[in-house]
Amino acid sequence: MRWLVLLALAGCSTARADDDKLAAGKAAFVKVHEVLLHPRCRNCHPAGDAPLQYADGRPHGQNITRRSERNGLTCATCHRSKNGLRPGQPPGAPNWHLPPEQTPMIFEGRTPKQLCEQLKDPKQTNGKDLTGLVEHVAKDPLVSWGWAPGPGRAPVPVPRDQVVAAMNTWIAAGAPCPD
Questions:
Q1: What is the pLDDT of residues 32-47, one digit of tens each?
Q2: Cα(109)–Cα(41) distance, rounded to whole angstroms?
Q3: The domain containing residue 42 runs over which residues?
Q4: What is the separation of C-alpha 125 from the centre of its chain, rounded to a whole number of angstroms?
Q5: What is the spatial distance between Cα 114 and Cα 177, in angstroms, rounded to a whole number?
Q6: How many domains does the chain have?
Q7: Is 1 domain-assigned?
Q8: Residue 93 resides in a domain
Q9: Which of 17, 68, 101, 159 is deepest in the core (most CB within 10 A)?
């Protein structure tokens, strides 16, 4: 009889650990969601075809859209490989661009659950799996710009290493989506 009690307690302990891991994964994704909806990320991941600007997410000036690039006006026309030295100058980073039109990686307006499901679908992430997404956030120079956006712009408030750690916690928990 005593072994049944011990076995039952061991099962409860395992179930509790699994529940804790799942809860930690969901909580980690909520932090990731908060970061991805910050203007430094959201502005280049809009719901439409026009990038956004400024902290309030207004449409890009000069009527810039994905169509602009197809017509020969690339982002690099104004956005150089690094930030200017004065506030108000166009921000810059290597390879400044929007995500591809076929996989726009929309962050704007996404709930945590919607964004979580999107990030887990390689058809929506330009073929990136979860490990590839972590690599993108951890090492891509354009993404890095979010933490060093130049004079007059607020950086992403959560340090990059903490965002990467949160993504890894989420993935280690099985990439659960918040309710």
A1: 999 999 999 999 999 9
A2: 12
A3: 26-172
A4: 11
A5: 8
A6: 1
A7: no
A8: yes
A9: 68
